[in-house]
Amino acid sequence: MPYLNVSAKPEIQRPVGNTFIVLSMLAALFLNGLPWEGVWLMLRPDFVALVLLYWCMHKPWRVGIGLSWAMGILADVADASLFGQHALAYTLLAFGGVVLHRRLQMFDLRQQTIHVFGILVLTYAMYALVHWQVNGYVVWPYFLGCLTSTALWAPLNIMIQAMQQKRVDRERRS
Amino acid sequence: MDNTQSFRFFNRGPSPVVRLVFFSVLSLLLLFVDARYRYLESTRSALSVLVSPMQRLAILPGALWQQVGDFFITQSMQHSLMAENDEMHQQHQSDAAQLLQLQALQLENQQLRKLVELPIRDEFTTQLVEIIYAERDVFNRRVLVNKGPGADVRIGQVVVDDAGIVGQITRVYPWLSEVTLITEKDHAVPVQVVRNGLRTILFGAGDTSQLSLRYMPVNADIQNDDVLVTSGIDGVYPPGIPVARVIKIERDAAYPFAHVTCLPVAGVDKHRHLLILSSLPKLSVRPADSPASDADKRAKARRKN
Predict the structure, then answer these.
(1) Topology of B126-277 in CATH?
(2) Is the whole-model pTM more than 0.95?
């Protein structure tokens, strides 16, 4: 399979523009903000978490725990959750991504997905834990979002890498 | 090439663990301050200026889709629209007749209240708002509407639709305000059973769009299809607005309380347009504490010293 050893290609190590990173995060916030309702809301993948995890894994010295925390605060405002609820969860997520980034980069997508699932479950559990502490109940179907997010990991990975590739090609031609 | 990675050996800054601890503690602090004291509302509304353009953009595709749908409906279903229009006209005429009666009754009621020296009921004005989007949090049942403090929307105002109570304003942003629906978990509305005047409190059930009466004794006089209206004694909800209808009563002798399930009368999950009741009833001030409790406080203060 062509995409399984993409990390071996030199193009991937090319610098990524800051605009690209910021745009990807804005796009993730936008996708999270689409009018999801009812069952779809339960199944909504957390795009912001996925994009943050991607950058934490591939560019840990650019996007780290601090930026993830800031994105968490923005997500808190967007979702009107308590201040720090998303921030705490994303801090944990970024920590997982940064600490495991060497191991994760060695893996192919299938093995990565398993690891990512673990990190996402922890993130979701942290969010639910805070909610449980403050409000005293947990909505269990909320954890379905973990599964859909994990399912999106591989497509998202391939997509972002393809977009980077294209940028590199364009730069080389000009 | 981005080979700075290897040179980062020296100037890496604090290690990930330190950062994790720092930001976790910061988040926990924020959580505590926000949950306990609600000090951060101004920060939240400032940040919402950053985020809200994004959210408005996100609802555009849906709104566009709906507009396209509306266009085709108006093209293809003119007949049914005409019929609906006629029906509306008839409805309007019968309503207008009833409204005339209502005005006469209101006058009469005011006069009677004056005669027996009861305070006159407060009138409230309404303003129409449109739901912009529902909040994207599975735990909450809230919607955001398109008017903020600029249009005199304030925290605590009551939101209704044509049939009954929908919710309450719980937060205001520069151009938006947040309505907590009555079906939100633990959201309480003081109500009264229309049939016999029984006063009680209605709670939201959270994940389903139902409501429940929690502390009804097993032998309470309540039946299926009883209508519950606001009692108005809380000073937040004006009296006499329909809230819910009882659909199921479980009386189990093993528990001290009956389990009563209700459905909201208003289309809590349905409409796009809602009404905000603008002027809240003013309650008389609570009388000052009696001297006995004053003495009690003084004793406590002495103990502290």
Answers:
(1) Thrombin, subunit H (2.40.10)
(2) no
